[in-house]
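Propose amino acids for all 227 sites.
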C-alpha cells in the first residue's frame, strides 16, 4: 500500500511539473507552446516537436529549466528552417564573424568559426567564462543557424585556493542563495559544488557564480534539490 501511495505522489508531482512547464512555455514570448511536446518522468523533462529557429529551441530549454522541481531537461526539439531562411554555410560563417566583431565582450581575434550544414562550431581560448558564453549567445541568435557547438576553452589564471576563496565569497554575496548549504571544492581549474538548495533556479545560480571566477574551465554541479 505504501509503495502505491509513493507512486501516486510521484505521478502527481510529474503531472504538476508538466503543467508548469507548459505554462512557462506559454508565458515565454519567444516560444509557440503548440509547437512543443512535454513529457516528465521522475522530474526529468523531455521536450519534443520542431521549431523554425535555434533560438526557439534554446528558449524552450531555458523555460523548462526555470520550473520548480525540474531535475534535468532532455531537448529533442528539431530545428527545421523554412526555405526562405536557408543560407549557405559561407553566408552563416560570415554573419557569425561580423556579429562577434560587434560584441564588445568577445575577443574575436582569439576565436575560430566553422560552419557545416548550418551547425556552427566555435573554437579558441579566452580568459573569462562570460566571454565563452557571450560568443555562443551571439551566434545562436543568428538566422539560419541550426545548432552551436561551443568548444572555446578558458585559460586558468589563479591557484585552486584563490579560486575557492573567490567563489565562496561570491556565494555569500548572492541574495538568491543560502551559502551555508553549499560547499566548494577546487581541483586545478575545475570546481565541484555540493550541498542542497530549494529550487533549480538556486542550483543554476550557484553554478553561475562558480563560472564567474576567472580561469574556471569546468564546473561539476552536485548540488541536490530539496524543496
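Proposal:
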Amino acid at each position: 500500500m505504501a509503495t502505491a501511495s509513493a507512486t501516486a505522489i510521484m505521478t502527481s508531482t510529474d503531472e504538476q511539473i508538466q503543467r508548469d512547464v507548459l505554462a512557462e512555455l506559454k508565458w515565454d514570448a519567444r516560444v509557440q507552446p503548440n509547437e512543443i511536446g512535454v513529457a516528465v518522468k521522475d522530474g526529468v523533462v523531455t521536450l519534443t516537436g520542431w521549431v523554425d529557429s535555434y533560438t526557439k529551441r534554446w528558449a524552450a530549454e531555458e523555460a523548462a529549466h526555470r520550473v520548480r522541481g525540474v531535475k534535468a531537461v532532455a531537448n529533442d526539439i528539431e530545428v527545421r528552417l523554412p526555405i526562405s531562411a536557408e543560407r549557405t554555410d559561407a553566408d552563416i560563417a560570415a554573419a557569425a564573424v561580423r556579429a562577434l566583431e560587434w560584441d564588445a565582450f568577445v575577443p574575436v581575434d582569439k576565436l575560430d568559426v566553422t560552419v557545416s550544414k548550418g551547425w556552427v562550431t566555435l573554437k579558441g581560448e579566452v580568459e573569462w567564462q562570460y566571454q565563452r558564453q557571450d560568443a555562443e549567445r551571439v551566434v545562436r541568435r543568428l538566422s539560419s543557424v541550426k545548432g552551436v557547438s561551443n568548444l572555446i576553452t578558458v585559460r586558468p589564471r589563479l591557484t585552486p585556493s584563490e579560486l575557492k576563496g573567490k567563489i565562496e565569497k561570491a556565494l555569500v554575496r548572492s541574495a538568491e542563495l543560502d551559502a551555508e548549504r553549499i560547499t566548494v571544492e577546487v581541483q586545478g581549474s575545475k570546481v565541484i559544488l555540493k550541498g542542497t538548495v530549494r529550487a533549480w533556479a538556486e542550483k543554476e545560480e550557484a553554478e553561475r557564480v562558480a563560472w564567474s571566477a576567472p580561469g574556471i574551465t569546468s564546473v561539476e554541479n552536485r548540488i541536490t534539490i530539496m524543496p
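The first helix runs from residue 2 to 27. Residues 1-10 have pLDDT under 50 and may be disordered.
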